[in-house]
């Protein structure tokens, strides 16, 4: 299979609690995970545009549901992170409402659940995993900041974190700093998107006739 390439990626819109989601004309792949785990950085790394999504060393940078359209064929959706202790109760509640309305909207086709490769998953990570199981949302576990652990520990730590969150014991080690795991993730997204959206050739195929 040809390695998948991103030819273009552009910001589409930001959505808050008031709604205003874009027309559902492309597959949606959304990123969830703790604040500061590297969701926005992963989008920038995948798209090769360091300025596309706002990133910050301080947790809580992404506050809205941000849509990026890739190759005119699928959306990457950046979500605000959870587990950010400094947030007020009101902020946590509005985060919960925003996430719940997005994740139960039936719009999301695949979730990337990001877990920091260095740390054991938290109770909130496990809750998020239970939530996506409950709603039957297909997922991939991505172990971020892989550059922070030695090479020999990367795959075992990614697998262990997937297991600890309650998922089958496989995670994809990923680093936005070095690009490790980038092509593997792109190829995975490509196969997710092509299964979701039959190619135009298939759409144009002659209808099957009864023998
Ligand atoms: N070493 C290393 N640092 C990373 C990596 N990915 C992200 N970071 C750093 O981690 C911090 C947080 O990154 P963000 O991408 O803003 O994290 P986020 O998950 O979008 O955070 P919120 O928007 O608060 O939910 C930044 O300082 C990044 O530079 C990585 O692969 N390796
Ligand atoms: Mg962010």
Structural class: alpha/beta
What number of structural domains do the residues give? 1
What gap, in angstroms, lies between the N and C termini? 34 Å
Which small-molecule species are bound to the chains here?
guanosine-5'-triphosphate, magnesium ion
Main sheet overview: 7 strands, mixed
CATH class: Alpha Beta
- For CATH, the homologous superfamily is named as P-loop containing nucleotide triphosphate hydrolases
Note the beta-strand portion: 15-25%
- The stretches of 5 or more residues where confidence is low (pLDDT under 50) are 200-207
Order of helices and strands: EEHEEHEHEHEHH
Based on the coordinates given, report the CATH architecture. Answer: 3-Layer(aba) Sandwich
Report mean pLDDT, rounded to a whole number: 89
Which structural traits does this protein have?
211 residues, alpha/beta, Rossmann fold, 7-stranded mixed beta sheet, binds guanosine-5'-triphosphate, binds magnesium ion
Descriptive overview:
It is a single chain. With 211 residues, this protein is of the alpha/beta class. The chain has helices spanning 39-47, 89-103, 123-134, 151-165, 182-196, 200-204; strands at 9-15, 27-33, 65-70, 74-78, 110-116, 139-144, 172-173. Strand 6, helix 4 (151-165) and strand 7 form a beta-alpha-beta unit. The protein is globular. Residues 200-207 have low confidence and may be disordered. Bound molecules: guanosine-5'-triphosphate and magnesium ion (MG).
